[in-house]
Design a protein that fits this description.
Elements: H1 2-26, E1 30-33, E2 37-42, E3 45-52, E4 60-63, E5 72-76, E6 81-85, E7 91-98, E8 102-109, E9 119-120, E10 131-133, E11 135-137, E12 140-147, E13 150-157, E14 164-167, E15 180-186, E16 189-196, E17 201-203, E18 206-208, E19 213-216, E20 225-227, E21 236-240, E22 245-249, E23 260-267, E24 270-279, E25 282-290, E26 298-299, H2 302-308, E27 315-320, E28 323-333, E29 336-346, E30 357-358, H3 360-363, E31 366-371, E32 376-381, H4 392-426
Parallel strand pairs: 1-7, 4-8, 13-20, 14-19, 25-30
Antiparallel strand pairs: 2-3, 2-5, 5-6, 7-8, 9-18, 10-22, 11-12, 12-13, 12-17, 14-20, 15-16, 16-19, 17-18, 21-22, 21-31, 23-24, 23-32, 24-25, 24-28, 26-30, 27-28, 28-29, 31-32
Keywords: Membrane, Signal, Transmembrane, Transmembrane helix
Pfam families: gag-asp_proteas
Protein name: Aspartyl protease
């Protein structure tokens, strides 16, 4: 009898809970949809068909790109839309009714998803707790740090990386306990790589716990790790290429005179900002990835080419596979102009999902402040402003030297053949 009474009480409690839940959902705003793909406008950025409705996930949570900044977020179905102006720390629930029958509880969250913030370790008195020295190899930026207590690792700072990565050749240097696998797409192709969910990382006196990472195969010799913006999402990052320091802070504490400000949007924590690309005689604005991990000037992805239908409008030098080597007549970043950049563009008929990006041959000509808290990036030209990048004139010179070398080689071979022929004739 006692057990029966307990079961009855539990059943009544569950029924009351379900009734309250149903009534709560009935009070939520509802938008209609007849297709499962939803577009989202987060601030100024419109991402088309990026949200797939899932009947099995309740609530299905969308995290705002810049949680601390008040932003207008709009969900757009093929039949309806709804907007909220978000405030940091709050959530906003609504229902998407698919085909008039499936109710999708959806939540917009102005919070960070799985935020990792560093703690400050003891440091020498001469070194500021938020200042990390770095060094350069080619155009890339590197730190020295430790993983799981194993010291003196070489760590690349790559704002184009969506997750912390460990080189396959460096796994023996740190006590990494792999406990899963992640699909990784990079220059080594698409592979299912081993991952580790809990690691301890230290760089320049800053310490992170429970850092997830994935093992990859395409790092260069001497590169142990890659870290990106996933470790700094609630921070302001200042990089000074002239002083070779990176400063982390919670607010901007310096005079911004001489800096140009740009709005930033993010893709998997990776910052993008708008630049202008000239093709022919026309300028095309587009958000390019701010990729400090690329040792090159830029890359034209399917996204930019498809947006404006430019594949047959590029000044092409030659083609190979599904790519073209092209000349970009002009790149404008604020009031800074880069002329005749030689780069590669992928044929959109053979999509590879690579985003358009700017690499370090361009980016390290600017000291920058990335304000992740407010979705802004500040750029200031530095002393490397006129350093070489892949310009067309340089390409033409190299091509001319190659042609001269080939002609010279052919003439030499012809001379040897003729000399051999004459020697045979004289011996007859």
């Amino acid at each position: 009898m006692k057990i029966t009474t307990q079961l009855l009480a539990l059943s009544l409690s569950f029924a009351v809970f379900m009734l309250a839940k149903t009534q709560g959902q009935q009070n939520l705003p509802v938008i209609q949809a007849s297709k499962p793909m939803v577009s989202i406008r987060d601030g100024k950025l419109l991402a088309k068909d990026v949200w797939k409705l899932s009947p099995t996930t309740a609530p299905d949570i969308y995290y705002t790109q810049v949680p601390r900044a008040a932003r207008k977020i709009t969900f757009i179905t093929n039949k309806d839309s709804i907007s909220f102006t978000t405030t940091y720390g709050k959530t906003y629930d609504f229902i998407i009714l698919l085909n008039g029958r499936d109710r999708m509880l959806t939540r917009i969250s102005a919070n960070y998803e799985q935020l990792l913030n560093p703690t400050v370790q003891s440091k020498p008195a001469i070194q500021s707790s938020d200042t990390i020295p770095f060094f350069m190899k080619n155009s890339r930026l590197y730190f020295k740090g430790s993983l799981n207590g194993y010291k003196n690792l070489t760590i690349m700072f790559d704002l184009g990386a969506g997750i912390t990565c460990l080189s396959e050749q460096s796994r023996a240097k740190a006590a990494v306990k792999f406990d899963g696998h992640i699909s990784v797409q990079n220059t080594d192709g698409t592979n299912n790589e081993p991952s580790a969910s809990i690691n301890s990382l230290e760089i320049g006196g800053l310490h992170w716990d429970k850092v997830p990472l994935v093992q990859i195969r395409n790092l260069a010799e001497g590169e142990d790790m890659i870290i990106g913006n996933s470790l700094f999402r609630d921070k302001i990052i200042e990089v000074d290429y002239e002083k070779k320091i990176m400063i982390l802070s919670d607010q901007i504490n310096k005079d911004l005179q001489g800096y140009q400000v740009h709005d930033v949007d993010y893709f998997q924590h990776r910052p993008r900002f708008e630049v202008n690309i000239k093709v022919g005689e026309q300028d095309y604005p587009f958000h390019f990835l701010f990729d400090t991990g690329r040792d090159g000037s830029m890359l034209i992805g399917d996204d930019f080419t498809n947006r404006y239908g430019l594949w047959n409008k590029y000044h092409s030098l030659f083609s190979f596979g599904g790519k073209k080597i092209i000349v970009i007549p002009e790149l404008k970043i604020g009031d800074q102009v880069f002329k005749n950049i030689v780069t590669n563009a992928n044929n959109p008929d053979y999509p590879n999902a690579k985003q358009s990006l700017l690499g370090n041959k361009i980016l390290n000509q600017f000291n920058f402040i990335l304000d992740n808290r407010n979705g802004k990036i500040y750029l200031k030209a530095n002393k490397y402003q006129n350093d070489n990048y892949s310009a067309y004139n340089k390409f033409k010179l190299v091509r001319m030297l190659i042609v001269i070398l080939i002609i010279g080689l052919l003439l030499f071979i012809g001379y040897r053949i003729r000399k051999s022929y004459l020697r045979k004739q004289s011996s007859l």
